Amino acid sequence: MSFTKELRLAADHVWEASFQHPFVKGIGDGSLSLECFNYYVKQDAYYLSHFAKVQALAAAKAEDLHTTSRMAAHAQGTYEAELALHEKFSKQLGITDKEKEDFIPSPTAYAYTSHLYRSASTGHIGDIIAALLPCYWLYYEIGERLKQCTPQEPIYQEWIAAYGGEWFRGLVEEQIQRLDHIAETVTEKDRKRMKEHFILSSSYEYSFWEMAYTLEKWPFEIQNSYIVSVVEQG
């Protein structure tokens, strides 16, 4: 069994929970509220802006120029394809510049991106790819599962089309092959750590759907004045 097949099997129950999450199923059947999707778009744009930076860190840590070039291309692709799609969604949803200025990442979005940075700062390129891969791979599998769906909401149709296409499949397969190759060259201790990164990211992917579906908030306002008022109110 290849290393990535081992990872996929280990995370299967988490991925299945993502497939069955009402946010994902709601995109497929069109029942998801636009309020939830609006929230998701803003949080995902934040996530992707950091995802691209971590891809660039992987490029910097690569030991050969070909991998550096490819990971740099992936970072550029995140900006040009996915963030451009989110910019389009923002216009369709009427997300204002003021909303973008006032944006605060949710606890889950902040924690997930922090996990990616930690994987990048404390490990080698294999750690980074292992942490990044669930985002690629899970979205592709979701796109494949939903590509026969015909939700009436056009935005959901566009979202499904973006992740169910052949171009995205190629990116996923490239990263799977890259991680399998890396796994053959590192120690068992390294592979165990890479597996942990993959499982954590898979769990964060599930939490991301839940975050958007519940419109997750911080337990208190970040502004100190609000914290004081809560304390004073008992």
UniProtKB/TrEMBL annotation:
Domain Thiaminase-2/PQQC as annotated: residue spans: 12-214
Keyword Ubl conjugation: no
Gene Ontology annotations of biological process type: thiamine biosynthetic process; thiamine diphosphate biosynthetic process
Highest taxon listed in the record's lineage: Bacteria
Hydrolase recorded as keyword: yes
Single annotated GO MF: thiaminase activity
Pfam family, one: TENA_THI-4
Catalytic reaction(s) noted: 4-amino-5-aminomethyl-2-methylpyrimidine + H2O = 4-amino-5-hydroxymethyl-2-methylpyrimidine + NH4(+); thiamine + H2O = 5-(2-hydroxyethyl)-4-methylthiazole + 4-amino-5-hydroxymethyl-2-methylpyrimidine + H(+)
GO CC annotation: cytosol
Metabolic or biological pathway: Cofactor biosynthesis; thiamine diphosphate biosynthesis
Keywords of the record: Hydrolase, Thiamine biosynthesis
EC number: 3.5.99.2
Its job: Catalyzes an amino-pyrimidine hydrolysis reaction at the C5' of the pyrimidine moiety of thiamine compounds, a reaction that is part of a thiamine salvage pathway.
UniProt subunit comment: Homotetramer.
PANTHER family: BIFUNCTIONAL TH2 PROTEIN (PTHR43198), SI:CH1073-67J19.1-RELATED (PTHR43198:SF2)
Recorded family membership: Belongs to the TenA family.
Protein name per its UniProtKB record: Aminopyrimidine aminohydrolase
Gene giving rise to this polypeptide: tenA
